[in-house]
Amino acid sequence: MTRIALGVEYNGTGYSGWQKQSDIQTIQGTLEAALAKIADEPIELTCAGRTDAGVHAIAQVVHFDTTAVRPDRAWTLGTNTHLPPAISVHWVKEVDKEFSARFSALSRCYHYIIHNSVIRSALLASKVTWYYDPLDIEKMRLAAPYLLGEQDFSSFRSAECGSKTAMRNIKKIEITRQGDFVVIQIEANAFLHHMVRNIVGVLKRIGAGFNPPIWAKEVLEAKDRRQAAETAPADGLYLTDVYYPEPYRFPKSAKTLIISEIFSGMNKNELV
User: Fold this and answer.
1) Residues annotated catalytic, as ranges
2) Phi, psi of 89, deg, nearest 5
3) Which pTM does this prediction carry?
4) Residue 266 lies in a domain
5) Which residues, in sequence order, are bridge partners of residue 170?
6) CA distances from 163 to 158, 194, 241 (A)
7) Dihedral (C-alpha) 197, 203, 209, 213: value to the nearest 10 degrees?
8) 114 and 68 in one domain?
9) Range of the domain at 76
């Protein structure tokens, strides 16, 4: 058996999340079916982060074991011929049996993109979240440090979250504005179900002036989901990086181009 790692990009619109489910279209199910055609045997995938319905990925990492011996081009270009346009394999690398796309990861990084404009964009539907009231990113930045470090994020997990513990370690929260786009970058060792979207919901209310920055600390300390804001939509959420220890250095995604240049270009009416 050989263990193979893949880098996968996908548009989550129209899919019921990553995790395979019977009679429901998911990213995992679609990708496993395509890989099985190349391997000529069933394939089971393990991913770095199980994204929700409608969530996108620029740099999802997966692994699988196979007895099939194929050139790299078969696992990338060959697999892509059996995939819909919304899913694409970007790179392949053979790894040792100790590697796990999920458990070997040191941290994951997500970007959440808000189109902060009075007028919604038809072309950006499902790719960003639209919010019409002005957002003060300075207030949002003041709130962010309260959420850093290893803490109990019970207030930011969904009722369906199956994790045994709500302890997570957020290493970084960066909030920037590029014209009409507010970009929230969050890196943590791991995430609870809906954790990023619930954090964005709180930051958005603070940026809109409904609550002061200290409210983020109060929500966190409450350890009660009912004390937080509404869950932000899946639109606009991207898995953009997964970080691994030194033995596993994979090709980096083009997130800088996708997150910064493309969306700033859209803001300048340079969309092509």
Assistant:
1) 52
2) -90, 125
3) 0.92
4) no
5) 149, 188
6) 10, 12, 22
7) 150
8) no
9) 2-104
